[in-house]
Specification:
Two copies of one chain form a homodimer. Chain A is α/β, with parallel strands linked by helices. Chain A has eleven helices and 16 strands. Strand 14 of chain A pairs parallel with strand 16 of chain B.
């Protein structure tokens, strides 16, 4: 029965928020921004390896990252990497994986996970995922994992539970609330962050595609008819180019009535900003998150420094700054200005083209 | 008669004050820190090229910079580069050049110049040098060029004139006064900065060596007996390893009574610190001295930025900083802390060895 359990890693993100460290040629999931010794995608793989055998993983990624995925996850065979010719948000990505799994094994039970999140307490996390898989195996249900919120974050999606069950039916999804609403959510206690981790039987999600995203169903179900890998690639190419970009949350989860959430606390972070990297990094006594070697700081505090390995950094007189140095881009900016990175990228792109992006 | 005029460029400096931009392998004289398109040594050569024919130049430098000199001054032949096996300050350097010239041409008239200074008004400067050469040709005199001081600089040597003649006898030399004394010097009006540029007949300086630095005379006059370039190299090697390190100012100029100074204003700077580079650089409207291309600044003022060509720099929220980025070292420090560079170097040296120095 173990063979019915599959893990789909979504790894198509471009990840500009960590520019200049993340690049279009090297997005966040392939980086070790926290200095753990392993990339995010490697951590993700190892997290689920204890639940799912290596041959039951699928990674959906952009065609240009296929080789990177194989380098980071040498356990996988080439046919386990599904390539998106173009990013179309999570629904098409999941549709591609679901129809591929359906073809392989109609009894497949499917975990879907982002490739670039951090989870500190992996044992606790796996207990929760096992519970979800058990529930999904016995019910015609779509499960998502909710995170107990620790701050009124406006950049996340929120899930409202309808009862106090361990696995609760979802009352409502709210994408990126304003600060006031987020504060109300926190106080209320019924709201949880949407981790973007899903668990369901492949048949259940296929049924949902048929019902809520019939165009996607039509386009991606063509995968079932493919006779050769080449045919399958062509079908995927057509499907991605013709389908509408839409998230699984917006396209299915918010509309379906068999959606459940298992909330938990297991040291989760999407590590979506330099601020969050700072928060999760080891700090020196002046609260600086700096490389352990080759970085000399004077009169500097609460700053985060990232420089290439073997490079020396001398930092004097910075308070609450982000310093990111790469081979071709140096960025110095106050931590309070991290949302300006998009503006920086746009300006560099405008003047210098895509070379440094 | 033109053939009697020689120019000796002293280019042995290691130049750590511009670290990490200047390196032991690439000292300041070979850099274009001000972004003029030419290195300091190239500017120096071209400055004197209108006074002295190319074959009458000598460059005294450390053996390890010989190839660099030939690259920057391809007009020179190998035998015009005199190599110091070890730096021993200016007196041995000048002795080596003087005895070499004496051997070549006993009627030689000699200009001695540092290789890493900036002179903005080169025409005015050459008028002064010509006057000095004329004076030196007709007198048994050692001339130095004095600069009208613009601030009570404590890092320079000062020359006190004894009268108001255009070429005045020197009353007194004072090396690096404290601030109070420097302020008195400025107010007094009789004191000028010592530019380290000297003009004399080779016979005059040789006489001075005999009289004031007889050990140096003995060691370096052996050059006269050398039959082959190899013999000469061996003699120089012995002389440098045995002689005392001493400056020409301290060893001769302060003691001799035939020392004159020609004071002038011609936009001189020794460009000895990042502050001085900042001062002489073109600034944007927020007083930033930044590269013309590839540097994007936000909420940043009065800062100086140096990054490798083709590198992108994004600088946000810095006021009065120095940012110097090189392939293997990044330095960020307040302009007011530039004297800490020596401390930075020491710390890097202690932990990482000479690799980055």
């Amino acid at each position: 029965m173990e063979n019915n359990k599959y893990c789909v890693i979504m790894a198509g993100g471009i990840g500009t928020r960590f520019w200049p460290k993340s690049r279009q040629s090297m997005p966040k999931q392939f980086l070790d921004i926290l200095g753990t010794g392993k990339s995010f995608i490697r951590h993700t793989y190892e997290r689920f390896e204890k639940l799912v055998p290596p041959e039951n993983f699928l990674v959906v990624t952009n065609i240009k990252y296929k080789q990177l995925v194989l380098e980071h996850l040498p356990e996988l065979k080439e046919e386990q990497i599904l390539c998106e010719p173009i990013g179309r948000n999570t629904a098409p990505c999941i549709a591609y994986a679901a129809y591929t799994l359906l073809k392989k094994n109609p009894d497949a039970e499917m975990i879907v996970t982002p490739s670039d999140h951090m989870i500190l307490n992996e044992d606790d996390f796996r207990v929760i995922i096992r519970e979800c898989m058990e529930f999904a195996a016995g019910h015609d249900a779509m499960l998502t994992v909710g995170i107990k919120p620790t701050r009124p974050e406006t950049g996340y999606g929120y899930i409202q539970v309808s009862d106090n069950q361990i696995i609760s039916k979802v009352k409502c999804f709210t994408e990126k609330p304003n600060l006031e609403l987020a504060q109300t959510f926190i106080q209320c206690g019924e709201f949880f962050w949407n981790s973007g981790i899903f668990i369901w039987k492949v048949n259940t999600i296929i049924e949902a595609f048929k019902k809520y995203l019939p165009d996607h169903h039509q386009l991606f179900s063509a995968v079932l008819k493919a006779q050769t890998p080449e045919e399958e690639r062509n079908i995927a190419e057509t499907a991605f180019s013709e389908c509408r970009a839409i998230s699984i949350d917006y396209g299915i989860m918010e509309k379906a009535d068999n959606v459940y959430v298992r909330c938990g606390e297991f040291g989760w972070s999407d590590v979506g900003t330099w601020g969050s990297v700072y928060q999760h990094s080891r700090k020196d006594r002046y609260a600086n998150a700096i490389p352990q070697e080759g970085c000399y700081v004077y009169d500097t505090r609460s700053s985060i420094v990232s420089v290439p390995k073997d490079k020396i950094a001398i930092i004097s007189g910075l308070k609450e700054y982000i310093v990111v140095d790469t081979d071709d881009v140096l960025m110095i900016c106050p931590r309070s200005e991290e949302q300006s990175i998009k503006k920086f990228i746009d300006e560099v792109k405008y003047h210098n083209g895509d070379k440094h992006i």
